[in-house]
Amino acid sequence: MGDTATQIQDEEIQEVGALTDGFHLVIDALKLNDINTIYNVPGIPITDLGRMMQAEGMRVLSFRHEQNAGYAAAISGFLTQKPGICLTVSAPGFLNGLTALAHATTNCFPMILISGSSEREIVDLQQGDYEEMDQLAIAKPLCKAAYRVLHAEDIGIGIARAIRAAVSGRPGGIYLDLPAKLLAQIMDAEAGAKSLIKVIDAAPRQLPAPESIERALKVLKNAKRPLIILGKGAAYAQADDEIHALVEKSGIPYLPMSMAKGLLPDTHPQSAGAARSLVLKESDVVMLIGARLNWLLSHGKGKTWGDQPKKFVQVDIEPKEMDSNVEITAPVVGDIGSCIQALLDGMGNDWAPPPAAWIDEISDKVESNITRMAPRLQNRNMPMDYHGALGALRTIIKDRPDTILVNEGANTLDFTRSIIDMYKPRKRLDVGTWGVMGVGMGTAIAAAVETGHPVLAVEGDSAFGFSGMEIETICRYNLPVCVVVFNNSGIYRGTGVNPSGGSDVATTVFVKDARYDKMMEAFGGIGVHVTSPDELSRAVNAAIDSGKPTLVNAVIDEKAGTESGRIGNLNPQSVVSKK
Ligand code: OXT
Ligand code: ADP
Ligand code: MG
């Protein structure tokens, strides 16, 4: 009997030694760099890659839509300082993941979108391959860097470059294109192992220039009404102790941006969170730490900032951020940990706190805003308004400060941000720089997977709809996620009326009396329908105690919200009235 094909192949393999292939090289390169979690949607050409990753002990979480897998990867980058990995199929899957990649880049989160792609020869001649698309070209303007690997021996380099590009300097999203053919390429296993790179010091410290520290301290020292603004870059940097020390040693009041809440507890006596308008208007020197003067800070000028002339000190790793909107008097370029440490060292031991009049003015405003809000948080109106419902959830976060709060919506976002105090760093995750709806479930899943802490996702009913199908994913992996849908039957409010008088409902209105809790039950999770703050409180406490996937449908007064929440001023107004 003649030799079988397999026998011949085996003999050949023995002659040339053990072989490896593109699939295994990708897996080995990621594992070598301590990347062990993948957020993906399977399909041609990456189904087997996912399977093999799982076989090799990686955690491979499959989603229902790539955008949600991408948001999960983005926030995992924020939480861990390692690039979150989203793995997708070619063209449509790639495009679904691309929104999240752009979101990661916009928010300065490290993430790598790895997509399978079609055959280069066919794509470049536009001959109509399966899911044909020039993905590299399309990704380039939407991310920090984009790479394609064509040869198995370059996989190690490709992944090393992607990791380093994602986390060094200002973090961001990276695209890595892996053509289908590459995954099946074989090479000698020993040469393959040698081709892999373990990235050394992927995000090297960037020490600030000593003169920039001196300049910044001089400006701060001369301030009569100083203010520190902490942004999500400060939360990302994980320099929690240094930041805490700087705030307390300087005695300067601070304002946390949304995702920087909890870096110091919101109840800290120097927190000016409840006196936002006052401190922006009246401050004379503002030190930004990992926060940009973009739309969320009214670009550092105009009505929000008042007439008081300002000097800005800005601590950021990205030199190009300086003077982006207004003059920065004292730029401090470097990584936040190193910069804050240098500022602390330069302050010496006799740093004088800011004038008492400034501190007292802020404390009075904080107290009056808190006192004004307090009775509203106790209200027992039915249907619930935002204050009544959030009064209940606020207590839960206070009692369980390790819980991660995910938050999206318009009114649901804005009320939650100002009502729920945070006590620990990186516990509040939200819509970020773009105010994007749809981050909710991906964020909740990654938060649970990466930290092991319970997650409470407070979601507007519209916001929830963007990623709602992922509650199946939450149930499938049995994650400790409690989703609370603030159900006011619509975008902003449920009261809109079709101006034409036609039979279609208004553009902002959803089905009335919808029961989102039943969706959760469909997948074996727990669904609860609540109409009062006490019921809400009981349901969420039970969910967190049990750790079981839960969705609480919380009925909110459909008249309670306002158009676009706190940012209604950004809506353009038509000056033409048509009959
Ligand atoms: O100092 P003053 O007196 O001014 O008072 C301030 C604080 O000092 C005080 N405060 C406190 N008082 C007492 N106690 C405490 N603890 C306290 N803390 C603070 O309260 C006030 C307010 O404080 P705040 O919030 O800090 O200050 P302010 O002025 O609001 O800050 C300004 C901003 C700009 C920093 C802040 O407003 C902010 O961060 N805003 C982010 C807004 C945002 O990103 N919104 C999301 C986008 S809106 C819209 O675009 C939506 N869409 C369109 C869409 C989107 N986004 N994405 C995609 C992919 N497609 C479409 C859609 C579809 S929202 C939306 C859905 C909405 O419907 P939902 O059903 O989901 O939600 P509902 O509205 O609930 O129905
Ligand atoms: P927020 O929305 O909370 O104001 P932004 O996303 O606008 O925050 O700003 C974050 C800033 O933090 C970015 O300019 C980014 O370059 C910077 N940043 C991120 N990580 C670091 C770090 N480790 N050291 C210094 N700056 C950082
Ligand atoms: Mg709503």
Structure in words:
- This protein is an alpha/beta fold and 579 residues long.
- The protein has 3 domains: 16-195, 3-Layer(aba) Sandwich (Rossmann fold), CATH 3.40.50.970; 210-362, TPP-binding domain (Rossmann fold); 378-562, 3-Layer(aba) Sandwich (Rossmann fold), CATH 3.40.50.970.
- 41% of the residues lie in helices and 16% in strands.
- The chain is built from 23 helices and 19 strands.
- A 6-stranded parallel beta sheet has the order 3-2-4-5-7-6, sandwiched between helices. A 6-stranded parallel beta sheet has the order 15-14-16-17-19-18, with helices on both faces. A 5-stranded parallel beta sheet has the order 10-9-11-12-13, sandwiched between helices.
- The longest helix has 22 residues, at 356-377.
- Adenosine-5'-diphosphate binds next to helix 12.
